[in-house]
Fold these 2 entries.
Entry 1:
Amino acid sequence: MGTFEYFDHTADMGMRIEAENLAELFTQSALGMFNLIVPMDQFKPEDALDVLLEASNVEELLWRWLRELHYLFSTQKIVFKKFEYKDLTEKMVWATCWGEYFDPEKHSSEREVKAVTHHGFQVLKNGGGWNAEVIFDI
Amino acid sequence: MSQAMESIPLQKIDECRWEIPKSYNSGMRVPGLIFADEKLLAKIRGDQSLKQVANVAHLPGIVRYSLAMPDIHWGYGFPIGGVAATDPDEGGVISPGGVGYDINCGVRLVRTNLTEAEVRPRLRDLIRQLFNRIPCGVGQSGVIRVNREEGRKLLVQGSQWAVQKGFGVPEDLEHTEGRGVLEGADPDAVSNRAYERGHDQLGTLGSGNHFLEVQVVDRIFDDPIATVLGLRENQITVMIHSGSRGFGYQICDDFLETTRRALEKYHIQVPDIQLACTPVNSPEGQRYLGAMRAAANYAWNNRQCLLHLARQVFEKFFGRSWQELGMHLIYDVAHNIAKFERYKVNGKEKMLCIHRKGATRAFPPGHPELPKDYQKIGQPVIVPGDMGRNSYCLIGTAQAMDETFGTSCHGAGRAMSRGAAIREARGRSIEKELEAKGIIVIARGQKGIAEEQPAAYKDVNEVVDVMHRAGVARKVVRMRPIGVIKG
């Protein structure tokens, strides 16, 4: 199983991911981002959207992935918590993302994430696994 | 994988000024100039903001100095509290990172003719009413919806649009920086994603450091100027801090990508990819400026709508019209913006592109941009502090025009990361601690109060002291919060 943890950045939030494979890298990154915005235990994987993205390398692809999920949350207010990958390489992700629509009357929240930044963004292959770092603008 | 801290050489100029010499790094085109005293400097050295001041000095066309205000802290590319002027005639660039994600995040100060004694007995109820009426926090939609056609109008017209719709009066425009509009907005330069993110967020506060505060004037430093502003001791004021919401965040995000590509196209070398920039006089630069101005205009509409909602709550609560309550806008300033302004460079007047990233315009008395009633005193510079201490109204000076491209500080500046603030708050109730000091705080986000606790910020009193002593902006009035709503 992969993990995510947060690290300090003066005004914002950093996140470090350790994963054994690409699917875990993408899943943990997404869960870590949504966990900043809302307490995740209130949400169920009951609605689904497909996300298909391409990039020239894995770093760009992970960044686009987080940016896309953040955009879907910002506009459709859906919190994703389960991911099924139909295809996943270092240059392409096609996933069915399962989650629940955020309802301010029903769900509590933590904080707004303004953006997924490029500041210090990195993805490293570590033996058979993956490490990544990302900073979110809060 | 985090970067190691690097010691930056600083030359002391006087008690309030420090220089990073050009010799520190061969790519620096100008020196760095930091406004701080020894005490603040010790805190500033705790993050990488000084390195960022030096990095900004690499920007093509930068004029005179890469400037830093006493509230600087670590940002993306630019430090927050950073100021840079570039000369378009000399290949000067525009950098979306020099404005930031929250384009025209800013603050407005509103006076009332209420006193603390009148408000104190019903304070909790008042703050609750404000919290219920003003959308704040994650996923909250605004009550003011506009279609795409109206949206394009407000992006071009600035807060004049809100006033025409009845969400304010013409005098509000007079007391807003640039009359609440940046000319030259281009709605066609704005992405669909930005429109989608912005369509339901007009009149919403947001979260993070955004807030609406009910305050009390607790100290007057300059009585004649305070009198012109209509401020006296024990008077209740309202302060609103918000920006362009998802609309602006998306525009910044879009153009960080555009300008990253522009670096290669225009052969620009910067030491940090988040300083991505493009010549002002390039198609990419003009497009960013058009979109950035649209976001700035969105933000002024947002704060105007928030003021409208606050006035409505006060009217209902006190059973008097806002005019009877004396709820006049003192001034509204932008904290994150790029503007074209004229300054003398080497004896010659030049039109420069001024990036203010977490910094406030601070024009002197007599400046043609100021409204008639402030011509003799100068521009009010609104500086919010943290929710436990103070906020300030300063006034702009001629010194600022000579030294900082008419710019002052914008707040207290963070001293503690969000993670550290949460650890610090463990086992405590910041809410109760503030209540014991007579401050009622209501926040929607569960972690918001801990992350935004007073100890997470530098002392705003120390920050404005440096500006005052340096002669950049002078202290006029100090407020203390008694009620706060946060996202």
Note: Chain A has one domain: 3-137.
Entry 2:
Amino acid sequence: MATLSDYRDREHWSFSALNQFLNICSLQFAFQRIHKLTPQFTPVALSFGSAFHRAMEWAHLLKQEGKTPREHEARDRFRDLWSRQVHEDPNIRFDEEITENTCSDQGADLVAAFIQASDPDEQVVRVNEAFAVPLVDQQGLVLEKPMVGEIDCVVSKAGVTTLVDWKTSGRRWPKDQARKSLQPTVYLYGYRQLYNRDVAMRFDVVIKNKTPVCEQHSTTRTPDQFNRMVEMIKTVDAMIAAEHFLPAEQGFSCAGCPYGEACRAWHCQSSRIHVRMAA
Amino acid sequence: MLKAIVSYSKKIPVPDSEFSSQGYSLSLETEIPDIEPSAIQSRLHQTFNLVKATVEEELANGNGSGRNSDAKPQERRAQSRDTAEKASNKQVKFITDLAGQRGLSISDITADVRKRFGVDGIYDLTRKQASALLDELHGKKAA
């Protein structure tokens, strides 16, 4: 099977790039993906999420082999992955409340909670399935850049296939979050293009309570929603070509943005020239 | 003083990958005093043997094929896959455009390339495979 990094070598679209442009901040998108500025720091959530995913990957690969991951092993696995992650990246930004140790304890609890809540009748079909598919609009026009992504897990129960994405969250998800999310549109589009099958996608979310809680949110998409996504991508492509990048001044992610300095200087002509030179 | 560059290279097969090889080479630059031709030849012969023996020893110690065999099967497949350049986005766009004109969907063409080329999808085709497929879709070759 091809890996995500195989597909990332070519120019492409991804859910994270599209989401960053549309829902986070188009200027952050430009700093990271067009000008390729070095981030001032690594947000702790990014590193934490990476270690969490690798622990989940380990647990689901075991499950795929017909083995049952044990809770204490899962805890140890997360702690080990987290420790390695922290040592490999000295730029992770912690604060007074979120430290290396609190993350280690919390991650171990979250992974253990997932193992406890795991459905024994659900079969793991694939783990980390990467895809690259052409984006085709409703008139049949094929865009030059493909959509690439990686599905965390494909599961099957009673003959029904479901794509699963693992998430951690600081709060319970609103009921319509899965319905509104762009991620299932991207992933279900990819799966449909590859296998000509319409399936459902489920978010397996573990809430970072003192005692973690697991919840599942399933959703599906229609061909009309796929067409809408491709139209959005065409428009975003045009905006990128025209360098329409603006700061999301009241964005929720400003506080933890690793491009804060470049953003504060963005409106100064000299800074913009500097940014272009850095590209 | 004469200057000589002595090189030795060897190609070895990539494990689990037919028709692929990896090359290993070592070059040594040395100075030879201006002496008679037979002495120069002897010095070059000695140097070449030294370079050759070093390369062979490194490979025997696992620094050639052994490095690959340490890789996980998935990584090994990725390494061998990387030896052939992948189809460009433009090539894939041409393929999908032509396939669309012939009433084939993306999933049809994906199923076809899986069956014929043993790849996961259209973007896993090599440039050569994509080129052959384009020729076929253009009708230059019989399908």
Note: The first helix of chain A runs from residue 4 to 8.
